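Slide 14.
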Amino acid sequence: MASIVDESVTSDSANLEARSRFREAAGLVAKIVKFHPRLFVTAVAGAALFAVCTVASSIGLRWMIDKVILVRFNENRSDAGALVIGSVIIIGIGLLRAFGVVIRRSYAGKTEWRTAATLTDRVLDHVVAQPVKWHRSRMTGDVVARCGIDSDASVAILAPLPYSSSVLVMMLVSAAWMLYVDIPLGIVAVCVFPILLSLNIGYQRRIDRYYNQAQKELGTLSEAVHESFDGVMVVKSFGAEQRETDRLAVITGRLRDARIDAVAIRSMFEAMLDAIPTLINIALIVLGALRVRSGQMTVGELSSFIYLFTLLMFPLRIIGYLFSEIPYSVAGWRRIDEVLSETIIADPMRKITTSPRGVGIQVENLSYSHNPDTTLIDGLSLKIDKGKTVALVGATGCGKTTLLHLMAGLIEPCGGSISVGDGGVALVFQEAFLFADTLGYNITLGSEISAEHIEEAIDVAQCREFVGALEGGLDTTMGERGVSLSGGQRQRVALARAIAHNRALLLLDDTTSALDPTTEAKVLNNLRLLAGRQTVLIVASRPSTIALADEVLFMADYRIADRGTHKELLSRSARYQALIRAFEDDRQNR
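Slide 15: predicted structure.
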């Protein structure tokens, strides 16, 4: 009794799951068709014309056999009128059928690829609209997979869909026609339709989880490969090539196993799709021959019947192709929908207000924490006058970079307010990122910046010497991440980029760390010449750099512990003195 109950529960669960998958697939079709409905409707109309003409072609065959071929054999005469009529029927139907094929294929392709482009654009727009906080919580490779592989997978169902709709039309029209021609043969032929449909549904149920697994592993593999390529220098430096290869091999192994399981089920499904119609066709020929012999059918009727049934077998297999694409598309759509259904987080940059006139940046009662249990910055307030060059100094881990990221609007504060001068903020990171494009593009990033401003930025950032040595000058193409330049050169290009965009507040996160002291001093002096135009806040750890600043903010324990000139802080703060001595000792020991 318990066994019967368990089987009943399992059956009910399977039925519910099947209905859920059907609703999900139907929902997917309804959603993606809405992107370009006119193209899809045109493709379906062409497919319907093809379906009707396919069934009608059997009428032409029947006419030619009964009215022309058998008359010639039985009566030894030729009926020219019947031949002309039959030819017109066959050629006319053939031309219409060909027209339907062209329309269906052309517009089905347009629907699929335009939908793929539209969907990809929407995902990209959604991803781009998310702030840095969102991107930091995602693996780059996974995001790339959702914008590419998953978008293509989502629309894969569109290619066979118009043809599959024509198969449904064909099934209805041909079933009516075959039953009209001969009821017993028609019943036998029509029975194959529910058999094949049941086979397709069963196949879709079994293969669904393998496609989901394969699509998930594709995303994981994309993450791992992207991460491995990004860290190629680390991998090679520590001789970890084999370990990385083994790690990727494990992921590809899981992907391979999921694909093999899916192919095994599909091959069995394909074999049954071949075998069942073939056996039914043999039965129809035998039964039809007996009915022709008894005079209940003509040879033309039997020939057209078998011809029509044979024509239907390939379209019925296309329905199988549709069912095989459904799990693949649904798996891709699920991953796409996870991104599109996420609420776009408010960009912290929008919460930064404009400071009062004459003030470069003003922070009031600022607080920030990574999680609810730990407060890093609590009640921090400061004001820097416009045009000042200020050094932010502190030990490692005291919150300097976090404060700069808050000021730049890359992360959102938990409380307080930030206001900067009219013109916005530019943050230059310690690790400068350059695009694999021209040097000029890396400075302008496609913005309309005058040649005069570009040249000024190059001079201020001390780029003139090495830019002049490049064969193509500003048109020289940088390697990936600017690999053709040294670390110091990349830092100066990144600084030139920030200067050229003429932002009111310039934040330098230890940006000159890769420069020699002489070049660094020249850069800072050049920045001071921009006084009145830009306020500069620089994280510094080189005493000579700190001494050049108009003012020093001494940061300790995530707060501004003291502020003043370098000399003032040295004279009154023991902690500041100890930190500066540590900086000097560190540089002497290098």
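Speaker note: Confidence is low (pLDDT under 50) at residues 1-11.
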